[in-house]
């Protein structure tokens, strides 16, 4: 796990610390997303974890160890790092890029070659087709996949991701986010990620930590942040369409009830409540069926879920 304990970073000549007494824990095997306005300290906080930036006060622990007491080079080999634009070595093949950390760790060549192929497979790139390519012969999304493969190659328990999908076009981005989230979940990685994109935070995060001026305004599960922003700043930041975002997170099946809706359109079993609402709007009906089940989702159920069980007093 990653833990910030009153971690601060000040710069000379700045009126306030870039990161100000940050307390945050990222539980093992979960993804926490740092989000907030430009300059709020997200990247500074992230870089304290692998000691690219040293705290002026407080400390950061990785798997129980204060990173301030660890050799920075050894530390960085235990922490995967994925950057926007990836930072692949342009004159090296995809295979050489993915092999970077295992090579530094002195793995035998054969083990490295097997690992490279396994990592390319993992991120959805056919090793035979991509192993020998140079980064400039890849699309933005493919480069990003190689960046993730490289970060995971030595099987680090902890992964840092700084705007990892910024260079990927919006259509490919959604798919890539879903795939990478599934991979990270399956591997049980502990991930701290920075983004300025709320949709990305909702899609990728088990928790979202919203920052402002070096401090955390709210750290919560995405559904809770969307349903119940802590203050006016949080409400404005998560946006006017936060209720739709929340509906997209909720499976329709979980909000279905017994009933029939003759002639009404049917939802796919894995559909979200946002899908249900879209189908109601498109068909003019106030209820839709769930395919293959004697259950329905009603407009009233969508309304109730949008406000959420967590809605506080007015
Ligand atoms: N080396 C430095 N010297 C002085 N000030 C710095 C330095 N690095 C960062 N800062 C300041 O610290 C604050 C936080 O910067 P940081 O890069 O962490 O923000 P951010 O939230 O990641 O922003 P963005 O979303 O724009 O990348 C900013 O006000 C920035 O100007």
From TrEMBL:
InterPro entries hit by this protein: AAA+_ATPase (IPR003593), ABC_transporter-like_ATP-bd (IPR003439), ABC_transporter-like_CS (IPR017871), P-loop_NTPase (IPR027417)
Family to which the UniProt record says this protein belongs: Belongs to the ABC transporter superfamily.
Secretion signal, residue range per the UniProt entry: none
Pfam families: ABC_tran
Official protein name in the record: Osmoprotectant import ATP-binding protein OsmV
Ranges where the ABC transporter domain occurs: 2-238
GO MF annotations, alphabetized: ATP binding
Keyword annotations of the record: ATP-binding, Nucleotide-binding, Transport
């Amino acid at each position: 796990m990653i833990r910030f304990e009153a971690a601060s970073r000040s710069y000379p000549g700045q009126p306030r610390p870039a990161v100000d007494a940050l307390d945050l824990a990222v539980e093992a095997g979960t993804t926490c997303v740092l989000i907030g306005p430009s300059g709020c300290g997200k990247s500074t906080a992230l870089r304290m974890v692998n000691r690219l930036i040293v705290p002026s006060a407080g400390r950061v622990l990785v798997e129980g160890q204060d990173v301030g007491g660890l050799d920075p080079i050894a530390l960085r080999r235990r922490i995967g790092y994925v950057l926007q634009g990836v930072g692949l070595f342009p004159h090296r093949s995809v295979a050489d890029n993915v092999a970077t950390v295992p090579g530094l760790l002195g793995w035998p060549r054969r083990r490295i070659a097997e690992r490279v192929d396994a990592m390319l497979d993992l991120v959805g790139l056919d090793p035979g087709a991509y192993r020998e390519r140079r980064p400039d012969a890849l699309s933005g999304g493919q480069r990003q996949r190689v960046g993730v493969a490289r970060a995971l190659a030595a099987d680090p328990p902890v992964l840092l991701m700084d705007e990892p999908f910024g260079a990927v076009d919006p259509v490919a981005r959604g798919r890539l986010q879903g795939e990478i989230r599934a991979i990270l979940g399956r591997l049980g990685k502990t991930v701290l990620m920075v983004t300025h994109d709320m949709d990305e935070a909702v899609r990728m995060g088990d928790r979202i930590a919203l920052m402002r001026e070096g401090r955390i305004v709210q750290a919560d599960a995405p559904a809770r942040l969307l349903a119940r922003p802590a203050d006016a700043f949080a409400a404005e930041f998560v946006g006017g369409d936060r209720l739709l975002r929340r509906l997209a997170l909720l499976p329709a099946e979980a909000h279905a009830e017994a009933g029939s809706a003759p002639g009404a359109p049917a939802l796919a079993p894995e559909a979200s409540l946002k899908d249900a609402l879209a189908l109601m709007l498109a068909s003019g009906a106030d209820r839709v069926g769930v395919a293959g089940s004697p259950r329905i989702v009603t407009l009233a159920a969508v309304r109730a879920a949008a406000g959420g069980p967590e809605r506080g007093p007015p």
